[in-house]
Prior knowledge:
This protein is α/β, with parallel strands linked by helices. The chain is built from 18 helices and 27 strands. 35% of the residues lie in helices and 23% in strands. An 8-stranded antiparallel beta sheet has the order 3-2-4-1-10-9-11-15, covered by helices on one side. The chain has a 7-stranded antiparallel beta sheet with strand order 5-6-7-8-12-13-14. Strands 19-18-20-21-22 form a 5-stranded parallel beta sheet, sandwiched between helices. Strand 16 (269-270) and strand 17 form a beta hairpin. Helix 4 packs across helix 5 and helix 7 runs antiparallel to helix 14. The protein is globular. The N and C termini lie close together (11 Å).
Amino acid sequence: MCGIVGYVGHRNVSDVIIAGLQSLEYRGYDSAGMAVLEAPGITIVKGVGKVSDLRKMLSERPLCGSQGIGHTRWATHGGVTEENAHPHCDSSSNIVLVHNGIVENYREIRSEIPGEYRSETDTEVVAQLLSTLYRGNMVGALVELQSRLRGSFALAIMAKDLPGKIYCLRKGSPLVVGMSRDGESLCASDVPAILPYTQDVVYLDDGDISELSTAGIRFWNAAGESVEKRVSHIDWDVSMVDKGGYPHFMLKEINEQGAVLRNSMAGRISGRRVVLSEELPWTRDDVLSWKKLHVVACGTSYYAALVAERFLEDITGFDIRVDVASEYRYRNIMAGPDTLAVFVSQSGETADTLAAERLAMGKGARCLAVTNVLGSTLAREVHDILQLKAGPEIGVAATKTFMGQITVLYLLALHLAKLQGRLPAAMEEELVGEMLSLPYKVEAVLARQESLQKLAAIYSAAEDFLYLGRGRSFPVALEGALKLKEISYIHAEAYAAGEMKHGPIALLDRNVPVVVITPKDGLHEKTFSNILEAKARRAPVIALVTEGDSSLDGTADHVFPVPATLDQFTPFVTVVPLQLFAYYFAKFLGCDIDQPRNLAKSVTVE
Ligand code: F6R
């Protein structure tokens, strides 16, 4: 969950590290720090707060040098204090390092290496242990270090007696390295920090060690043998990781959703037919041999999976199970060679999703990753990949990747149904034709965001919300409520509309607005009854309806119309107003929208 940046080159390293940390701040933002080689020693500046606070500290205490490592933290071991902020060093101050991940046996190691510890972190213990193992050969010491540590870690390390070099070690937590044409070497937890210098990167594999210098980057495996690594070209460019004139990344990303739909469909549709056979080279026999379909994810990705579940069950004959990864991994899962297991993860680094995937792989299931990050751990471990093509998502609250996920999962459903022989050509053409119109419909919703801004202001005093939806609108309600609570810290609960009378109705009074997602579909009339039940308890009702539907006029307090689409596709247009409502609500309250409290984008702890 933390962000790491390392740089060795010819520029002022503190500028490079600050810029890099800012692009990784979505990974954690409770404290930040950096260590710079200022010959003959290494100077550390760190403290509680965001990268902008670190920048202020540096204006008072500028660091001069062209080699350094930096860190932005999401606290796990030890509170949010200056002492616990990274970098950490050994007691002789020769070795200094930054760390992402968790070392599970740190207490054991700490008791073996007595001495004065300045922090409560597992990271300082790693620095002390490395110092006892290091006898002039850093690669050898790192080979030994990784055999002693349990857990997951990505480390960037400098030693005072090894100027000009930064060492990296990866096990379980992501780390990527790259070299610019000007002889600058970088490492980072994620590519946005490296993109301004190069689009050619190497993703370290578990156990990999690398040495960065101005002469190049060298690699060794966990046994200490020198290895060559494959270079990956990243097709994201640096303009994709700025706000592009928007006040927040979240707003920019919500507004990009028409383009995300187009990109995620591009090259996967020809005429009005789905063409996924290059990316998923499955035969009809493969698909017919799978009797079960498991879809596993966390958070927003799980809600995307729930949206897709309805479509998958409509058009494929699979026995479908959709589960949150943190539950799936601890159950007695009946998966095997007769199972297609789909793991949905924007980052591809979520610890629970990875554990669930490893469980399914171990049982012999065919595993597919639906992810935005091709070089991610998930993408590299599974049999098949479908990339979202949403571009980098920096706002901590996921929005455009939800859109990318449902798009790709719908294409997957169509591909599977086709291979099963269950999708008549006319039906495929009708469904795909409608999918192709969705970017315009999403953009029509985006064009009316001013009215959602006004709505957010009207309800800004509310402290509790209930979100309701039936069928496909139920996971949309879950996602809408999650967005509101994540970024505005307002309590919002989502229920299947039919469940309201079984308990949550007790909460309702004039102070609890009810947001109802009720497009004109087969369940519209049923949901209408639930709206009347809420109104009878004087709850204000905000209803998302299909354009032209006047059935709620005079009943709902506010109505927001969305463009008409086929029943199967309503989530694509109903989720957008809920994202915007949450955004403007949080903005009205003055919340830190892109970096909400307690959250981090990439959840690499269990
Ligand atoms: C919510 C959000 C999280 C993530 C969840 C899974 O806005 O972003 O709920 O969806 O942490 O993350 P990924 O998709 O990276 O596995």
